[in-house]
Amino acid sequence: MNETVKAMERGDASRETLRKGLTLRGADQEALFALARVRRDAAFGGGAVEVRSVIEISNICKQRCNYCAIGSGSCEGQYLIEVAEFIERIELLSRVGRRVVLVQSGENDDQDFVDHVAACVGAAKQSHPDMVLLLCLGNMARAQYARLREAGADRYILKFETSNPELYHKLKPRDTLDNRLRCLKDLVELGYRVGSGNMVGLPGQTIEDMVTDILTLGFLDLAMSSCTPFIPGIETIYRDEPMGDVDLALNTMALVRILYPNRLIPTTSSLEKARPDGQYLGLMAGANTVTIHDGTPPERKDLFPIYDSKRFSPGEEHLMNAVRRAGMKPVQGALR
Ligand code: 5AD
């Protein structure tokens, strides 16, 4: 077996081993993925894949991240889903068997918005107590996170995107890495099951940065870790930059799985966008969750252009097919 994979198997998490692990290709990469799957299946058993839906509750965003088109001039029509419509969507998702729903929005810490989401979460938990709710709403004050937790939110996803503070500030000119990490600490302390992660292949990002990202995931007390290849959005200043390297992203996922076996790791639509069958490869590299884009009302979908003007979302059938081909089986409900 490849020396680096053997070192990973022994629990070696040195920078040198991680650096080499990121660049494995061909049969050596296959061996890395195989180890990641062994660790995943030992931790979770039975090849289970957590299936989620996402409701994009609002596209109002206070950040102006350079990689994202939300909030740019080309994202016309701000929207906010009202409580009644939110509950309708939860109802619909519940009827198709969904038990885990991600509630996503632009980054918005207006107290009115926080109160609105708290009302949505509270109402959803009341009518569907068995529904696990994950929030992904960006940076907030600790008291705001506490309010949403008290309303019934179970989990929160807040990616640090890059652990390089200069690069972070370049990507997110209105924010700092320190503030992001403060938010993550607050979320963990408030009892959320927290997810975080990075993007791979950002303009100006180095392999050393990616190694630090992987180690940073270990310093945080996380239940979920996510890695996505950078997509140069056509409506962003990065439109002419190269796409993030899918192999680097997949190897990051495998390394994260081996180092932190008990975490939920999504296979994201950005993988599929960067390479056909990318989400299948994500499962083969150790991922164990998929998100179906069936929660946002259809007429709003194009108003949430994270990495494209027309939102790219592989359909449920395609995803379920990838799950089956990976020898795994979809589970409606929280794996952890
Ligand atoms: N390329 C890849 N991932 C992106 N995200 C946002 N924009 C991009 C992009 N251009 C990811 C970020 C963010 C999540 C909601 O989507 O990691 O946290």
Blueprint of the fold:
Elements: H1 3-9, H2 15-22, H3 26-44, E1 48-58, H4 83-95, E2 100-105, H5 111-127, E3 132-136, H6 142-151, E4 155-157, H7 165-171, H8 177-189, E5 193-200, H9 207-219, E6 224-229, H10 246-259, H11 269-274, H12 278-284, E7 289-292, H13 316-325, E8 329-332
Parallel strand pairs: 1-2, 1-7, 1-8, 2-3, 3-4, 4-5, 5-6
Helix pairs in contact: 1-2, 2-9, 3-10, 4-5, 5-6, 9-10
The structure holds 5'-deoxyadenosine.
5'-deoxyadenosine (5AD) binds at residues 67-68, 159, 161, 199, 228, 230-231, 233, 270, 306-307.
Short characterization:
The protein is 43% helix and 14% strand.
How does this structure look, described?
The chain has 336 residues and is α/β, with parallel strands linked by helices. 43% of the residues lie in helices and 14% in strands. It is built from 13 helices and eight strands. The chain has helices at 3-9, 15-22, 26-44, 83-95, 111-127, 142-151, 165-171, 177-189, 207-219, 246-259, 269-274, 278-284, 316-325; strands at residues 48-58, 100-105, 132-136, 155-157, 193-200, 224-229, 289-292, 329-332. The longest helix is centred in the N-terminal third of the chain and has 19 residues, at 26-44. The two termini are 32 Å apart. The model has no long low-confidence stretch (mean pLDDT 95). Bound molecules: 5'-deoxyadenosine (5AD). 5'-deoxyadenosine (5AD) is lined by residues 67-68, 159, 161, 199, 228, 230-231, 233, 270, 306-307.
Approximate strand percentage: 5-15%
Helical residue percent? 40-55%
Ligand catalogue = 5'-deoxyadenosine
Largest sheet: 8 strands, parallel
